[in-house]
Every structure is written in structure tokens, then in C-alpha cells.
């Protein structure tokens, strides 16, 4: 069996799988309510919020699309800098919403000034931001962008922290983020299928006034059921067992230690890249700490490297995503990885490089 060092889904620990294999419980009862309630404190600590967290049975795109459906009454501004953020714009368009974008080249970060200039054109009531653009390894300036968005009254900010949640500190309340969402198959190191999200009071108020919210992705349903430590429909209970387990692991390690570990893991891969003259695709100052995206050097057989790494050492890295597939490669260092396990990967990669 090969071990994943791709930026999602990532390696899941045997103790997490064991936690997930507990006998099933009904979701309308005290046992489930206790399970749900137990997830709240650490999720809130990771997000820097006192607001409740909701557990949605779907991958991240479910809540990304739901945020548009529940919150865009006028016009959404999508901040586009890579595969996931660009797609959020096309999803908004495909829903028939009024949408505009700030677009930068893949590999660049969104500048707060560009967001300000666009919002000054007027008419917007929602902004979408991908904190950590997993396709390019770019970490956007969440604080700077949030500050700008907050200076425009009536404009809500949705933040996808899918590949940054639990890898770096996020201050949802202090920054005034209105929706914070994360799929669990990235830094939370769970199998895919669950998305955790939190809503500001303003987001809840906006949703209540929106027509045509449907049911499965209705934020107001999540709020109503959340008040009783429950979910609108039958949730992925096994994944929530896993979530409870991993949040316990995070609490035991301490969030500050967890953030420091991600930084240390990431620095090792950056060092390795420098040693072999692999250039970072993301600019200095906006580099992700949960994964690294490297340019593929001209004339270097990236695909042979990746194949041999897997065949000989059982480690899987990623050969680029979307339109930069083949032109870049990506290595994840998030979740349960440690300097020791990163060193195993580095030793294996060095062996393949010869
Ligand atoms: C992986 C990823 C997604 C996609 O999530 P799904 O779980 O496939 O729906 C969205 N945003 C970011 C930043 C991601 O890394």
C-alpha cells in the first residue's frame, strides 16, 4: 500500500480508522448529540471563534456552493488565483448568479488593494476567498483581505480554509469572517466526505432572508438543528467518530505545537527543494505551510520520478493540478506528518534522484 503525500486526500492514521469503526448509533438521540457537542470546542479553537460549527456530509464543494446559494442576494466577487478559486467563479456563473472576479496569474497571490479597487465599483454583497490555494501552493493574505472586505458594509466574506484549517492559526471572529469552511480530508487527516463550517451572525441573518435555499444545503436548517447538537439530515456518523478522535489528538498535542510542526515539516521540503534547485511556484511571503508546489524543471522527467518514488518506496506525490499539471509538482506535509516521516519521504526522493 502506498502512502499519500499528495495535498488531499492525505494519509489517515490507523487509530483514526479504528475510531471510525465503532458500532453505529442513531443520529436522533442523546448519544449522537454528545458526539456532536464534543467536536465544538477544538473546532472553535482552531477557527478562533465562539460561533457554533456545523457538520455537513459532503466534500468542501457542497458548502462552497451552499455559501453562494444562501448568501448572494446581489452580486458575488470571486478572488481567483488558481484551480479552486477560479472554479468558484464558474460555479457562481453556472448558478445564474451575478458574479465578477479579481483574477491573478496562477502562482500569484490576491492583493488586498485589488480587492478594494474592485469592491469600490459597488454592487457586491459577497466575497469568496480561498485562503490556501492548494493547486498553486499560494497562501493568501487573509488578514489584509478581510480588513478590506470589512470596510465595505453589507459585504460578507466566505473563506475556504480547506487546506489551511488546523495547519495555521485562523482568527475568524477577530477578522470578521462570515463563513469559514474546511473539508476534513486535508489537514484534519480524515477520509473525505465531511465538511465543517461556521457562520457569523450576519451570515445567518442574510440566509434567513434569502429565498430558494432548498433543504440539504440550507444554512438555516444547519443553525436550527445545530442548536440541538444535530444535523438536518442523516450525517456521516463514522466520519464524525473520526473527527472526534482527531480533535482529541489535536487537543493533546496543543494547537500551537501543531502549527509549529506544520511549519517545521514544510521548511524541510523547502530546504530539500533548494538543495536540488527546484523552484517554488508560490512567491516568497505567500507560500503555503501545508504543502509545497514546485516548478518542474525543463527537461526533467517528472512523471518518471513520481512513478519510481511510488514503485520503489511506496510514497505518492502529486504531478500538478489543472492547467499546471506536468508543469509543477506538489508535496503535502499536513495532517499527522512529523519531521521524522518527512525525512523518510526526503530520503526516498533523494534515492530516486540518485
Ligand atoms: C481540496 C480542495 C477543495 C475541494 O474540495 P472537495 O473536497 O473536492 O469538494 C476546495 N478548496 C480547496 C482549497 C481545496 O484544497
Query: Helical residue percent?
Result: 40-55%
User: Which fold name corresponds to the CATH topology of the largest domain?
Assistant: Aspartate Aminotransferase, domain 2
Low-confidence stretches: none
Radius of gyration: 20 Å
Structural class: alpha/beta
Could you write a compact summary of the structure shown?
This protein is of the alpha/beta class.
Secondary structure elements and pairings:
Blueprint: E1 3-4, H1 14-20, H2 30-47, E2 53-56, H3 60-71, E3 76-80, H4 83-94, E4 99-103, H5 112-119, E5 126-130, E6 132-133, E7 138-139, H6 142-150, E8 156-160, H7 172-175, E9 179-183, E10 195-199, H8 201-208, H9 219-226, H10 237-253, H11 255-275, E11 291-295, H12 302-313, E12 315-316, E13 328-332, H13 339-353
Parallel strand pairs: 1-12, 3-4, 3-5, 5-8, 8-9
Antiparallel strand pairs: 2-10, 6-7, 9-10, 11-13
Bound molecules: pyridoxal-5'-phosphate.
Pyridoxal-5'-phosphate (PLP) is lined by residues 8, 59-61, 84, 130, 132, 134, 160, 162-163, 183, 186, 192.
Structure, explained:
The protein is α/β, with parallel strands linked by helices and 354 residues long. The protein contains 13 helices and 13 strands. It folds into two domains: 106 residues, Aspartate Aminotransferase, domain 1 (Alpha-Beta Complex), CATH 3.90.1150.10; 237 residues, Aspartate Aminotransferase, domain 2 (3-Layer(aba) Sandwich), CATH 3.40.640. The structure holds pyridoxal-5'-phosphate (PLP). The site of pyridoxal-5'-phosphate has 14 residues, from α3.
Amino acid at each position: 500500500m502506498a502512502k499519500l503525500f499528495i495535498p488531499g486526500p492525505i494519509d489517515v492514521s490507523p487509530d483514526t480508522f479504528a475510531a471510525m469503526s465503532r458500532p453505529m448509533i442513531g443520529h436522533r438521540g442523546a448519544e449522537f448529540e454528545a458526539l456532536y457537542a464534543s467536536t465544538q470546542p477544538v473546532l472553535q479553537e482552531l477557527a478562533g471563534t465562539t460561533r457554533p460549527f456545523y457538520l455537513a456530509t459532503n466534500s468542501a464543494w457542497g458548502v462552497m456552493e451552499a455559501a453562494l446559494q444562501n448568501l448572494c442576494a446581489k452580486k458575488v466577487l470571486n478572488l481567483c488565483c488558481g484551480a479552486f478559486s477560479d472554479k468558484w467563479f464558474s460555479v457562481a456563473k453556472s448558478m445564474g448568479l451575478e458574479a465578477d472576479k479579481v483574477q491573478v496569474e496562477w502562482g500569484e497571490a490576491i492583493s488586498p488593494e485589488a480587492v478594494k479597487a474592485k469592491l469600490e465599483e459597488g454592487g457586491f454583497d459577497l466575497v469568496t476567498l480561498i485562503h490556501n490555494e492548494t493547486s498553486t501552493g499560494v497562501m493568501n493574505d487573509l488578514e489584509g483581505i478581510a480588513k478590506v472586505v470589512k470596510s465595505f458594509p453589507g459585504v460578507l466574506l466566505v473563506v475556504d480554509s480547506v487546506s489551511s484549517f488546523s495547519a495555521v492559526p485562523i482568527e475568524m471572529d477577530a477578522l470578521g469572517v462570515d463563513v469559514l469552511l474546511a473539508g476534513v480530508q486535508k489537514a484534519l487527516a480524515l477520509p473525505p466526505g465531511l465538511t465543517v463550517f461556521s457562520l457569523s451572525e450576519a451570515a445567518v441573518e442574510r440566509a434567513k432572508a434569502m429565498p430558494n435555499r432548498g433543504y440539504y444545503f440550507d444554512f438555516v436548517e444547519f443553525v436550527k438543528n445545530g442548536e440541538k447538537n444535530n444535523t438536518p439530515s442523516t450525517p456521516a456518523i463514522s466520519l464524525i467518530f473520526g473527527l472526534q478522535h482527531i480533535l482529541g489528538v489535536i487537543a493533546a498535542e496543543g494547537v500551537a505545537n501543531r502549527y509549529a510542526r506544520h511549519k517545521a515539516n514544510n521548511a524541510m521540503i523547502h530546504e530539500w527543494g533548494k538543495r536540488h534547485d527546484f523552484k517554488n511556484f508560490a512567491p516568497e511571503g505567500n507560500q503555503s505551510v501545508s504543502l509545497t508546489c514546485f516548478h518542474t524543471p525543463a527537461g526533467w522527467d517528472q512523471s518518471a520520478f513520481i512513478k519510481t518514488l511510488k514503485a520503489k518506496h511506496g510514497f505518492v506525490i502529486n504531478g500538478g493540478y489543472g492547467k499546471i499539471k506536468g508543469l509543477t509538482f506538489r508535496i503535502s506535509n499536513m495532517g499527522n506528518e512529523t519531521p521524522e516521516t518527512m525525512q523518510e519521504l526526503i530520503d526516498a526522493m533523494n534515492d530516486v534522484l540518485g
